Recover the amino acids of this structure.
């Protein structure tokens, strides 16, 4: 599409075509191209061919999971009841999607209107991350059709997962609502937009509460397993804060990463406001991420001191822990700080990639790698890995499709540019 | 954008709070105090000095619970040589709610120790507290039972169980459920009868009775044979006390017991998080309202003047 | 089940009445042999050769019958209540070791009778096996289950053994 844009193609930014007629929904879905051009465009994109390969392998396996059961795609481990679906899909996707509530808070609550150009990307990143965390959850649950049981059929309110279930569900609706304006603009439903605008602050406050609690609750879930999670990763009083605090820099870093991809691969869809402010906003986000990283690092060390886990530092697991902290926390912290000092968005972006990797490592460490540290190491089944790749590919596809159409990276206009 | 005045903001904030408040208020109630267990609950005292490893209990369990046929006959002692995953011995599974394992102990005159294990039926079960559909019940008789009809299959109970007991029928695509010992609640315990494994044991390795009496019996055995027994009833206090308790003549950590498990019930580790829930719910709205008002104070003042900056 | 149980109880009563183990200290007055078939639902009855065991213990009845034969206990704790020299009313195992060890009535008795010293007395099956196996293990007697009582068909079914053995399957899954 970037090439197409160079050759003079201008994407849909308004209800009106240049000649004054209105776009139909179908035309909007096809990005203003003719069906033939659209298909040709899709076939030209090498990334789509990679996706096709992933789906050719992954879709049958996902179908097989529902026909033959979880036992067919996982190792059916009783000792490792949670594998990659939750270890990656839930515990990693959710913190990486914390950008939603943080951009809402920054713009709507703290009144930092200068972050407005990236607010919707933050919200969308949040919504899709949660949505696909739920998709992963639905693949992992033994009986996904009973997902509403904790809501309405049989309630276990004392369980942390009950809190997670309710909060993720409410927060998902909250995020959908927050993104209604974008959808309303695209579809031409001004009333829906107005309605949401009237309650945007309520939604934002609810978003903060829900996010604090369920990001923390995901950490809280592991407090059920004091003997199983390695002491260096476990902390009864601080676990929730570790997860919450790391979600802050995870969300911000993910937003930097996603915006970088947008800048690279979807430049045709970004408007000048977005592109021009991106470097400044990247540094703004970096500031937040650096602060969260510093806080996280301190509270991590406090947690070790609190439980007096120092002796574990000198074991093999301790070295693994130090590696995670050095590469996943200290390195991005240093790089972010350097980027801020030198005013270098490129360095900040490098740092963001590392920080996102660090979060993935941390969550996988907690849920899978150091879990049952004195038992044995579970290596997930290959089919499990294929499913994760396939679902994540779908996440990218949906993400890309929405970015290409709805006013996320650009502002909707009354009339197209002449 | 519509200017938001203080009043409409507060309204919105309160509405947001109300959304979550209803969902979380009761969370800390069940985590309030430690619970010593039902006073007249039953239990089983297992004395490993008596076990000869005949696996009758496994066979009895299989029959009583209508479990699928085992991979090997119950009189096949080669199962004791089975090793899974880095030296792991057999564990409970969807096909076996109780397992006997053999532990070779150096210099033990009587030879190896046979250790039977199954669900310990905790006084404050971790599985129960972690279940978000309330599928587990601790009955007054002491059993921790499970309702498969509401199970969603999140398997948090398997994460939470400090004894690695619950298994899951992964093989079923339509109705996978948790599989674990229910102390024969439906067929026996409810009627005051001992679990099938207890009754089947030729050696009376297991003593069935009221939990509080079993502690007396266990202590009496240790007292009358101090040179034989390890001076500890495993399960009397572990993770808040369990209905199944154990006596041994070799240190418990040598026969597969987790001796670092602590005396706190698992819920006490979770409480730390649960206590912040109502705090966040009550403090956050006010706090962030305040932030908002402060952050937008300048803008609000600006807007009062005829021409705003934006 | 109840039918079998009734039969067993009847048989044991008959055995007790027949005088095994008789209410006499003298080993010679014990029965030649006895049939133990409480586990008849799973195992063939045990033909217990009493006189052979009398020989093995060299006439020391207390080896199995504790103080009931009037022997002076070697354990000083037992001596306090059972000074010896006096035969008990019954020497039958089942008269002290209840076959209903874990039933409600027995458990209630243990709990409510604060005067009761023996709150931890094995039930009948436990008493037999602990005594037999304990001795067999140290003296080199047979210790395999089927050395004493051969499994019947129901027992094979119970153990999924013999004709009821599971078909050998390739081991897959089940971690």
């Amino acid at each position: 599409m970037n090439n197409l844009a160079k050759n003079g193609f201008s994407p849909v930014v308004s209800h009106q075509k240049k000649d004054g007629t209105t776009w139909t929904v179908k035309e909007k879905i096809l990005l203003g191209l003719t069906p033939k051009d659209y298909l040709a465009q899709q076939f030209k994109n090498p990334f789509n061919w990679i996706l096709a390969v992933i789906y050719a392998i992954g879709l049958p396996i996902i179908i097989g999971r529902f026909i033959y059961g979880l036992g067919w795609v996982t190792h059916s481990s009783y000792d490792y009841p949670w594998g990659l679906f939750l270890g990656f899909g839930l515990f990693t996707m959710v913190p990486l999607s914390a950008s939603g509530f943080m951009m809402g808070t920054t713009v709507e609550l703290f009144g930092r209107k200068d972050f407005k150009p990236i607010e919707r990307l933050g919200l969308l990143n949040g919504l899709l991350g949660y949505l696909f965390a739920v998709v992963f959850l639905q693949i992992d649950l033994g009986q996904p059709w009973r997902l509403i049981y904790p809501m309405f059929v049989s309630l276990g309110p004392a369980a942390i997962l009950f809190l997670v279930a309710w909060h993720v569900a409410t927060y998902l609706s909250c995020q959908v609502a927050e993104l209604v304006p974008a959808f309303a603009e695209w579809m031409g439903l001004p009333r829906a937009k107005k309605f949401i605008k009237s309650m945007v602050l309520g939604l934002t406050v609810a978003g903060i509460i829900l996010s604090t609690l369920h990001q923390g609750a995901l950490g809280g879930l592991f407090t059920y397993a004091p003997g199983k999670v390695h002491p260096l990763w476990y902390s009864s009083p601080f676990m929730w804060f570790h997860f919450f605090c790391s979600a802050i820099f995870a969300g911000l870093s993910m937003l930097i990463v996603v915006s970088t991809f947008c800048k690279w691969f979807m430049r045709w869809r970004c408007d000048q406001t977005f592109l021009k402010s991106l470097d400044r906003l990247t540094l703004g986000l970096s500031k937040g991420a650096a602060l969260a990283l510093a806080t996280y690092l301190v509270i991590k060390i406090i947690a070790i001191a609190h439980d007096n886990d120092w002796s574990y530092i000198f074991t093999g697991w301790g070295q693994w822990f130090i590696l995670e902290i050095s590469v996943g926390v200290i390195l991005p912290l240093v790089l972010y700080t350097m980027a801020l000092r030198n005013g270098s968005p490129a360095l900040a972006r490098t740092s963001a990639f590392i920080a996102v990797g660090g979060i993935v490592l941390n969550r996988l460490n907690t849920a899978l790698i150091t879990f049952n540290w004195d038992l044995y190491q579970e290596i997930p089944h290959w089919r499990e890995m294929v499913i994760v790749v396939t679902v994540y590919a779908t996440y990218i596809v949906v993400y890309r499709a929405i970015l290409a159409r709805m006013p996320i990276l650009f502002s909707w206009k009354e009339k197209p540019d002449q | 954008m519509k200017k938001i005045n203080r009043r409409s903001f507060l309204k919105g904030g309160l509405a947001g709070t109300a959304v979550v408040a209803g969902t979380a208020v009761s969370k800390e109630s069940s985590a309030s105090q430690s619970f010593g267990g039902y006073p007249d609950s039953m239990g089983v005292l297992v004395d490993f000095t008596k076990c000869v490893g005949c696996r009758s209990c496994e066979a009895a369990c299989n029959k009583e619970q209508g479990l699928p046929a085992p991979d090997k006959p119950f009189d096949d002692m080669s199962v004791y040589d089975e090793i899974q995953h880095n030296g792991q011995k057999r564990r409970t599974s969807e096909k076996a709610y109780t397992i006997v394992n053999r532990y070779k102990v150096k210099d033990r005159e009587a030879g190896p120790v046979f250790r039977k294990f199954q669900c310990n039926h905790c006084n404050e079960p971790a599985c129960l507290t972690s279940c978000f559909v309330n599928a587990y019940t601790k009955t007054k008789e002491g059993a921790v039972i499970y309702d498969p009809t509401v199970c969603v299959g999140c398997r948090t109970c398997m994460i939470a169980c400090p004894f690695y007991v619950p298994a899951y029928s992964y093989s079923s695509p339509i109705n996978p459920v948790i599989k674990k010992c229910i102390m024969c609640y439906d067929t026996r315990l409810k009627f005051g009868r001992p679990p099938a494994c207890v009754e089947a044991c030729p050696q009376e390795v297991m003593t069935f009775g009221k939990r509080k009496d079993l502690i007396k019996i266990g202590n009496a055995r240790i007292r009358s044979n101090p040179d034989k027994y390890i001076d500890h009833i495993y399960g009397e206090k572990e993770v808040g006390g369990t209905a199944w308790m154990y006596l041994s003549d070799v240190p418990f950590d040598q026969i597969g017991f987790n001796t670092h498990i602590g005396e706190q019930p698992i819920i006490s580790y979770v409480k730390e998080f649960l206590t912040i829930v109502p705090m966040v719910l009550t403090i956050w709205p006010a706090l962030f309202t305040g932030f908002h008002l402060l952050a937008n104070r300048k803008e609000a003042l600006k807007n009062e003047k005829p021409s705003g900056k934006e | 089940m109840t039918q079998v149980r009734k039969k067993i109880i009847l048989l044991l009563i008959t055995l007790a009445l027949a005088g095994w183990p008789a209410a006499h200290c003298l080993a010679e007055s014990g029965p030649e042999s006895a049939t133990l078939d409480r586990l008849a639902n799973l195992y063939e009855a045990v033909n217990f050769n009493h006189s052979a065991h009398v020989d093995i213990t060299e006439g020391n009845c207390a080896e199995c019958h504790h103080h009931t034969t009037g022997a002076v206990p070697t354990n000083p704790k037992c001596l306090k209540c059972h000074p010896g020299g006096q035969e008990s009313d019954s020497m039958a195992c089942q008269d002290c070791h209840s076959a209903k060890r874990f039933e409600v009535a027995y458990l209630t008795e243990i709990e409510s009778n604060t005067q009761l010293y023996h709150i931890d007395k094995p039930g009948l099956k436990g008493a037999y096996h602990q005594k037999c196996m304990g001795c067999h293990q140290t003296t080199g007697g047979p210790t395999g289950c089927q050395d004493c009582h051969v499994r019947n068909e129901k027992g094979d079914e119970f153990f999924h053994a013999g004709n009821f053995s599971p078909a050998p399957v390739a081991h897959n899954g089940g971690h």
